[in-house]
Amino acid sequence: MKSYQEWEALRSELRFREGAFINGEFVPAISGETFPSVNPATEEVLVNVASCDTADIDVAVSHARAAFQSGVWSQMAPRARKKVLLRLAQLLDQHRDELALLDTLEMGKSISEMVAIDIPDTIDCFEWTAECIDKVYGEIAPTGVDTLALISHEPCGVVGCITPWNYPLMMAAWKVAPALAAGNSVILKPSEKSVLSLLRLAELAKEAGIPDGVFNVVTGYGHTAGKALALHQDVDVLAFTGSTRVAGMLMGYAGESNMKRVWLEAGGKSPNLVFADADLDKAAQTAAVAIFGNQGEVCIACSRLYVDASVKDEFVEKLVAAAKRFQPGDPLNPATTMGPLVDKAQLDTVARYVSSAIEEGGRVLLGGVPEHQTGEGFFVEPTIIDNAHNGMTFVKEEIFGPVLAVCTFETEEEAIRLANDSQYGLGSALWTESLSRAHRVSRQIQAGMVWVNTWGEGDTTVPFGGVKASGNGRDKSLHAFEKYTDVKNVMIRLS
Ligand code: NAD
User: Fold this and answer.
1) Keywords, A to Z (predicted)?
2) Catalytic residue among 18, 113, 265, 297
3) CATH of the domain at 456
4) Residue ranges of E strands in 23-81
5) 209 and 235: one domain?
6) Is the beta carbon of 155 within 6 A of some atom in ligand 1?
């Protein structure tokens, strides 16, 4: 790991891209408009970036469609596409420090998290996905001797990806890698709060050999560029990661336009169940990571803690001690465990929820939101609020910040009922030394992912996604290809 000084030296050499990447080149927005990319640790403007809207999206879609129709990528043999994507993975590896710095500077995540999580996961996603694409076969259906039914998977066409800012590179990779591997043309609209690493990704993709028009990054706001992409008549698939509110809007846009397929990875309010027979030390350490890692700006953050009432006091003491390890600081310092929140709006949201928790009877055990001083960054302390229950606003709604609600339960049935009493169903964790209880409870939890005696562990080989208002479809694993391919049945009469 590089030292603080080394990261600062690298930062001073960094060059930012400011145009949208359309048809293989950086271009300004047609309107000439820009928006600022801001460092949330210092509030300084890093660079002004092209603020694209409908006109730019139209141009990007027409290039993406032309590239798809030409077959330059869509008809390339899977093995050849694999080689290009593997080359891209290599380039990502060669530029790992630069990419880590770009996300840290723009959204505030600590550089040590970038190095340990986002960068290796992104590279692995491109590598693994590339390696898969020449190993997935079609099927022959068991129709009978007079017919031959060939079932194949074909690329869909033009895929629009709309992504959030909390893991800028990684969230984009989970969509872009399988969409490209399957042979589609892709238009990525990253969050306006985190564009810089994605513009660099586009440049590296070109260097790796992805043909012009096949991978485009259109920068802009959600209500302009994002909405235009979602409403476009010539986009076949929309793959989204972001809030449940916007996810619902995208379903509406698809219905209003061409019924494009919409895949949604949306919000969460994950429960963490700690049973009395759990390893309380491990559970407390991990409960802190599960809500304070990445400043709590994690879709699977376990923001609702349910602990068996009989061990609550003992557990909470361990939890508070573990939480103190997370202290806000300069995210460029490798020793920093928590960076700033992404912007002032997110800081205000967190402050509002903490106030509402106190008004509704919560007791602050740790942290709170200090008065913000302009120019000093959007930092928040790790915050733990006791006396919480499912009727409170801050327990029901996603905060997307480092705020943990501590609730209790008396029985296993009650724990399951409380965990499922949410509009969301993304992640969940449970802690027990009983194998039977682990199976019994995980079967009944309404969530796309259940972690037993751990939290957040992932692998490119396993699917990631949720149920209920947390979305549909899955990122990662072979299941990701289902989003970006159409199933075709060719039925041939033989006699
Ligand atoms: P957001 O919904 O505000 O924005 C996500 C993306 O949608 C951005 O690119 C934004 O510009 C775009 N957008 C906004 N309005 C739009 C519109 N009207 N039309 C089209 N696009 C529009 O979410 P965010 O603040 O960037 O990210 C935080 C949210 O993302 C949280 O709710 C978090 O739980 C969720 N998230 C989910 C997962 C998952 O895998 N389920 C992963 C990471 C983050």
Assistant:
1) Oxidoreductase
2) 265
3) 3.40.309.10
4) 25-27, 34-38, 45-50
5) yes
6) no
What are 398-415's pLDDT values in tens digits? 999 999 999 999 999 999
* 125 touches ligand 1 (CB under 6 Å): no
Residue 265 bears catalytic tag: yes
Predicted local distance difference test score (pLDDT) of residue 431 = 99
Q: Residue 179: pLDDT band by 50, 70, 90 thresholds? A: very high
Domain count for the chain, please give it.
2
How many Cβ atoms are within 10 Å of 373's Cβ, its own excluded? 8
Would residue 379 count as lying in a domain?
yes
- Rounded Cα gap, residues 55 and 447, in angstroms: 39
Query: pLDDT band at 356, cuts 50/70/90?
Result: very high
Shortest CA distance to 454 belongs to which of 483, 432, 474, 469? 432
Residues 284 and 242 both lie in one domain: no
Q: Are residues 241 and 355 in the same domain?
A: no
Does 466 fall in a domain? no
Asked whether residue 303 is domain-assigned, the answer is: yes
Q: Phi/psi of residue 186, each to 5°?
A: -130, 135
For residue 370, the model assigns a pLDDT of 80
- Centre of ligand 1 to C-alpha 242, Å, is 2
The residue segments making up the domain with residue 13 are: 4-266+471-490
Q: Which two tokens stand for residue 214?
A: 């096949």
Determine whether the shortest distance from the Cβ of 220 to ligand 1 is under 6 A: no
Q: What is the pTM of this model?
A: 0.98
Please indicate, yes or no, if residue 152 is contained in any of the structural domains.
yes
Q: What is the DSSP string of 380-444?
A: ---EEEES--TTSHHHHS---SSEEEEEEESSHHHHHHHHH-SSEES--EEE-S-HHHHHHHHHH
Cβ atoms of residues 296 and 403 within 8 Å: yes
Is 436's pLDDT higher than 90? yes
297 and 259 in one domain?
no
pLDDT over 90 at 369, yes or no: no
Residue 42's Cβ-side half-sphere holds a number of Cα atoms within 13 Å equal to 11
Burial group, residue 348, by CB count within 10 angstroms (0-12, 13-18, 19+): middle
